[in-house]
Design brief:
With about 375 residues, the chain is of the alpha/beta class. The protein has 14 helices and 12 strands. It binds 3-isopropylmalic acid and manganese (II) ion. Manganese (II) ion (MN) binds next to helix 10. Catalyzes the oxidation of 3-carboxy-2-hydroxy-4-methylpentanoate (3-isopropylmalate) to 3-carboxy-4-methyl-2-oxopentanoate. The product decarboxylates to 4-methyl-2 oxopentanoate.
Length: about 375
């Protein structure tokens, strides 16, 4: 298959984790005989610095022309700590999502058997967890009208949803549930919010055409608790933009590190793949950031183009790295493996999945393996 992939490394650790995902895609090209063309463009704080805008026109154009976008990370503390900043890196990502019509953000959450003791949650609570969050991505409070009075003392953000916006992602979520454990949970705040009541109405109606899927509802406060108390009860969670943002970070605790969570953002015509984590500026350039979320985002890209076997090759190689403890310090505090080495190991194992490198496990534990 030929694919044109736009690479948007962004800020902080974005470039270094994205580079590992590209290594893995190149390993897939080599192994499965595909041809991917990569074109890179700036976004976020780096784009503000270089081009004066968080999403320069040329970057948007490149993304629109590409078959898919692979995104690194966005954000810079310089802007976070300045409430008066006129322009912010995050606006680049939000504009990109809107312009590309990426209304559904898909975030799988699972407890990897080899990492059960890495989570601060008890093993027997998280064991068997495997759910996916369908987060609405181009509506709600993120995109509603924003107001600030002249004195700068009163502010508001409008949370608005239309039936059409709710229904298009709801269909995707039900279709996903059909292929999984056949359960869909709508997370909302329908006891308080009018927009949530509309979500319930629309989702209930659509649910009638998916009789094989059990539909239930949870208020977001209760959902936040249930995700920690009993995460294996979930299959597909459907929710609006901001609730999805919050509970997906919460969900990452189950896996043991936010550095493991990948996502796909899809629309009618475009698709973008990115880790759910931020730019982690404290780690930038230190070769310690976990590249797995970015690598698994590349696997989601392949799945999007029906390259299931290829995606599986990446996931198996990731599993192997996790099992062998070839991981960054977020998962093993004393680990001597850096971002690059973990990327190399995973890429190598895609090319030759059976090759065990004749690795000496003891050396791996000591971080002394010379093979990676
Ligand atoms: C995410 C991020 C973004 C969001 C930020 C960077 C705008 O937190 O993708 O979850 O809030 O959607
Ligand atoms: Mn977030």
């Amino acid at each position: 298959m030929n694919l044109n992939i736009a690479l948007l490394p962004g800020d902080g650790i974005g470039p270094e984790v994205l580079a590992q995902a590209v290594k893995c895609l190149q390993a897939v090209e080599e192994t499965f005989n595909h041809q991917f063309v990569y074109k890179e463009a700036p976004v976020g704080a780096i784009a503000i610095k270089k081009k004066g805008a968080p999403l320069p026109d040329n970057t948007l154009k490149l993304c629109k022309e590409a078959d898919a976008v692979l995104f690194g990370a966005i954000g810079d503390p310089k802007f976070d700590n300045d409430p008066n900043a006129k322009v912010r890196p995050e606006q680049g990502l939000l504009k990109l999502r809107k312009e590309l019509g990426l209304f559904a953000n898909i975030r799988p959450v699972q407890a990897y058997p080899s990492l059960l003791d890495k989570s601060p949650l008890k093993k027997d609570i998280i064991s068997g967890t495997d759910f996916v969050i369908y987060r609405e991505l181009t509506g709600g409070i993120y995109f509603g009208e924003k107001k600030l009075n002249e004195e700068g003392t009163i502010a508001s953000d409008l949370c608005e949803y239309s039936e059409g916006e709710i229904s298009r992602i709801t269909h995707l979520a039900f279709k996903a549930a059909k292929t999984r454990k056949k359960k869909l949970t709508l997370v909302d705040k329908a006891n308080v919010l009018e927009s949530s009541r509309l979500w319930r109405k629309v989702v209930t109606k659509i649910g009638e055409s998916y009789p094989e899927v059990a539909l239930d509802f949870l208020f977001v406060d209760n959902a936040a608790m249930q995700i920690i108390l009993n995460p294996s009860q979930f299959d597909v969670i459907l929710t609006e933009n901001m609730f999805g943002d919050i509970i997906s970070d919460e969900g990452s605790v189950i896996g043991g590190s936010i550095g493991l969570l990948a996502s796909a953002s899809v629309g009618e015509e475009n698709a973008l793949f990115e880790p759910i984590h931020g730019s982690y500026p404290q780690a930038a350039g230190k070769d310690i950031a976990n590249p797995i979320a970015s690598i698994l985002s590349a696997a989601m890209l392949l799945e999007h183009f029906d390259l299931g076997e290829e995606a599986l090759a990446i996931k198996k190689a990731v599993d192997k790295a996790l099992k062998k403890g070839i991981v960054t310090p977020d998962l093993k505090p004393k680990s001597q493996y850096g971002t690059n080495q973990v990327g190399d190991f995973i890429a190598h194992n895609i090319v030759d999945i059976e090759d065990d490198f004749n690795m000496n496990d003891e050396n791996i534990d000591l971080g002394k393996s010379t093979i990676i």
